[in-house]
Write a structure and sequence with these properties.
Layout (H helix, E strand, L loop, with lengths): L4 E4 L9 H14 L6 H8 L4 H12 L7 H16 L6 H11 L3 E5 L3 H11 L10 E3 L11 H10 L6 E5 L2 H9 L3 E5 L13 E3 L5 H5 L1
Parallel strand pairs: 1-2, 1-4, 2-3, 4-5, 5-6
Helix pairs in contact: 1-2, 1-4, 4-6
Length: 214
């Protein structure tokens, strides 16, 4: 393989959480007096950390979200995860092949550590991602599209950025990976390839990924 480390985004790449979380976010923002459609949520917030929601609402309306927003939002999301969350098709087989080939990998997510753990426990991905392979925007302060999270993951895994490849499903994530000096492949399950901008390449099935990275 051309790369020494594969860095996966989590939501929408490993676990099929984006439809659930963006449906909940749109409904909650609307409930709070900030009318938001599902499509609005995908456009504005998909791939970003929760602070992006606060910043965007404040910039657009001059109003701050309530103090308990994060806790209530996450409670609603975790309840939905417990009922409905599934692993993205093809991910376990793809991870098994990475392990068989001895290729290091990790996850670097805009979500909190708790959100990552909840999703991985529900889908069985926790067996593939022990603590040392899990990185969150919580670890660096600035989420995507800043490069900080991907650079942090590379440093902790002991691999130079230019030897890393990122797997993303959002334009924000692609921008972050490019800012970190990394190649990045866009997963087009929910985002059209045209929106990935400067991505190295695209794919729509996890079974195609390792062939692209070879």
């Amino acid at each position: 393989m051309r790369y020494e480390l594969v860095i996966f985004d989590n939501d929408g790449v490993l676990v099929d959480s984006e439809p659930l979380s963006n449906t909940i976010l749109a409904a909650y923002l609307t409930e709070l007096g900030h009318p938001t459609s599902y499509e609005d949520s995908l456009r504005d917030y998909m791939g970003g950390a929760v602070h992006r929601v606060h910043d965007t609402v404040l910039e657009r309306t001059g109003r701050r979200l309530p103090e308990g927003f994060d806790e209530e939002f996450h409670a609603r999301v975790f309840a939905a995860f417990a009922r409905e969350l599934e692993v993205v098709a093809g991910v376990p087989d793809m991870l098994a092949k990475l392990v068989a080939e001895g290729v290091p990998y990790c996850v670097a997510s805009s979500g909190s550590h708790e959100r990552i753990r909840v999703g991985h426990h529900k889908t069985g991905l926790d067996r593939w991602f022990p603590e040392g392979r899990v990185f969150s925007a919580q670890d660096v302060g600035r989420g995507k599209p800043a490069p900080d999270l991907f650079l942090h993951a590379a440093e902790r895994m002991g691999v130079a950025p230019e030897r890393c490849v990122v797997v993303e499903d959002s334009p924000l994530g692609v921008r972050a990976a490019r800012a970190a000096g990394m190649d990045v492949y866009g997963f087009t399950a929910m985002t059209p390839a045209a929106k990935f901008g400067t991505a190295t390449g695209y794919f729509d099935d996890m079974g195609q990924l390792l062939g692209l990275l070879a």
